[in-house]
């Protein structure tokens, strides 16, 4: 942005003005070489001021901070503990020395290499030479190589916990899951570095959380970050070190929930209006929305349906929500379920079947392939479409709406949970198959939308 001071016009780099508040925002691109260490391409800070002169002073301070941060990350990117260890192992291999070997001729040659560092360090002073310990004179790679030669296992570092977690987790082959966990861990490593696990404390975890809040990350988002990181450390504790204390296990988040945007629930007229818009558009995107309206399914569950999951000719028309190679079910075992088709959802299912091409495999081939289900694309498109029609809701609120609607007509919780795919001490699962369909249909008809 530009400011005028008398006859001079100055440009403040990395700034823009928010359209809604007029507040000046600092937004600086992350260098391409470091983007894997951050969650986005831009670093943003609302400077909480409309005064360009005040903003200019804040920008100077922020530029100094990020200049130093970027330089440190660039310079140390190949000296993290895992990188040092890898280079130390390569050094041993170059000399032909095995780990734990200090007696072979090859080991003697490598020790002579280490001694050359000592000679340089001592510079001819006998007392310095006598009192020096390897940590005084060996660079990190050589010091790690010496530890390996002497049979000392390197201290576990933060990234070791991540590697173990992603190597053994049931969802390790799910790119979305692995990518999310890696992104959260990259933020932690950017904040603290790949330090030894034993050196990472609960205070460090608190400081990391506070740094997220300082960046104006919503507390609900911070809680998701904390859960992801806590799961990694909890697994390390369980599988590798029972004495390790999970630093994220009981971390509190300042002001948690107070920054949440309170939305009013879908009311009957708004739902009816949404259904009318769906029937008017009458295309795959709107069929997805309508399927959610009267089944309360998660968006990805609907987008990833196989055509054969829609059973409209059954005695009780229903949809089967079950895992597929292109779309696993992310939640509990109860997510695999059958749900009766009524109202808006029955209309949508019929339109999908009527419009299907010969040999069609997916209910929504525009958004589903053998490799993936493009639920995020659908979500963005639906939310934008609803907003343009003055429906101030997001598509996921349709799932909350079915819970409210069923609760308001006195639907038993075990039936409601079976419809929604929630666990309830094993009770709800029985309603999802065979004999439970008529029971669920009876309750869904009490709230189903009319044509």
How many individual β-strands?
A: 8
Query: What is the helical fraction, as a range of percent?
Result: 40-55%
Approximate strand percentage: 5-15%
Strand order of the largest sheet: 3-4-5
Compute the CA-based radius of gyration: 29 Å
End-to-end Cα distance, whole Å, is 53 Å
Shape: elongated
Poorly predicted tracts of residues: 426-435
Structural class by helix and strand composition: mainly alpha
Mean pLDDT metric: 86
Brief summary:
The protein is 50% helix and 7% strand. The chain is built from 18 helices and eight strands.
Task: Please give a handful of descriptors for the protein shown.
451 residues, mainly alpha, elongated
What does this structure look like?
By secondary structure, this protein is mainly alpha-helical. It has 18 helices and eight strands. A hairpin with a 2-residue loop joins strand 1 and strand 2. 27% of the residues are buried. About 2% of the residues have low confidence.
Give me the secondary-structure topology:
Layout (H helix, E strand, L loop, with lengths): L1 E4 L2 E4 L3 E3 L6 E6 L12 E5 L5 H25 L4 H15 L9 H18 L3 H6 L2 H4 L2 H10 L8 H11 L6 H18 L9 H13 L4 H21 L28 H14 L2 H10 L5 H5 L6 E2 L6 E4 L15 E4 L2 H13 L19 H14 L8 H12 L4 H8 L15 H10 L6
């Amino acid at each position: 942005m530009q400011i005028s001071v008398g006859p001079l016009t100055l440009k403040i780099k990395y700034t823009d003005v928010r359209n809604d508040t007029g507040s000046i925002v600092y937004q600086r691109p992350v260098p391409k070489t470091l983007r894997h260490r951050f969650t986005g391409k831009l670093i943003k800070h609302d400077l909480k001021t409309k005064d360009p002169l005040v903003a200019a002073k804040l920008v100077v301070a922020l530029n100094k901070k990020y200049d130093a941060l970027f330089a440190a990350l660039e310079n140390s990117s190949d000296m993290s503990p895992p990188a040092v260890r890898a280079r130390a192992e390569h050094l041993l291999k170059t000399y032909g020395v095995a780990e734990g070997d200090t007696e072979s001729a090859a080991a003697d040659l490598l020790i002579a290499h280490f001694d050359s560092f000592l000679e340089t360090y001592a510079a001819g002073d006998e007392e310095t030479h006598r009192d020096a310990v390897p940590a005084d004179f060996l660079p990190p790679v050589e010091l790690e190589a010496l530890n390996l030669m002497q049979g000392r296992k390197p201290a576990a570092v933060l990234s070791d916990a991540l590697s173990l977690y992603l190597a053994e987790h049931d969802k390790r082959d799910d790119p979305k899951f692995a990518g999310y966990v890696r992104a959260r861990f990259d933020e932690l490593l950017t904040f603290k570095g790949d330090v030894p696990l034993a050196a990472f404390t609960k205070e460090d975890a608190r400081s990391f959380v506070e740094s997220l809040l300082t960046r104006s990350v919503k507390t609900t988002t911070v809680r998701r970050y904390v859960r992801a990181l806590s799961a990694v450390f909890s697994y390390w504790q369980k599988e590798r070190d029972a004495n390790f204390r999970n630093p994220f296990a009981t971390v509190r988040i300042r002001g948690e929930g107070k920054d949440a945007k309170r939305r009013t629930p879908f009311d009957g007229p708004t739902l009816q209006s949404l259904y009318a818009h769906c029937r008017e558009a009458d295309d795959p995107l709107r069929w997805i929305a309508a399927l959610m309206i009267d089944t309360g399914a998660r968006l990805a569950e609907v987008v990833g349906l196989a055509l054969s999951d829609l059973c409209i000719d059954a005695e009780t028309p229903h949809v089967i929500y079950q895992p597929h190679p292109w779309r696993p079910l992310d939640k509990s075992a109860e997510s695999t379920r059958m749900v009766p088709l009524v109202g808006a959802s029955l209309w949508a299912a019929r339109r999908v079947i009527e419009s299907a091409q010969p040999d069609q495999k997916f209910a929504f081939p525009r958004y589903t392939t053998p490799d993936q289900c493009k639920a995020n694309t659908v979500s963005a498109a639906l939310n934008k479409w609803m907003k343009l029609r003055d429906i101030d809701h997001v598509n996921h609120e349709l799932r909350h709406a079915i819970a409210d609607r069923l609760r308001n007509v006195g639907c038993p919780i075990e039936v409601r949970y079976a419809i929604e795919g929630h666990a309830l001490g094993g009770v709800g699962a029985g309603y999802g198959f065979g004999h439970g369909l008529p029971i669920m249909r009876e309750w869904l008809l009490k709230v189903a939308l009319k044509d």
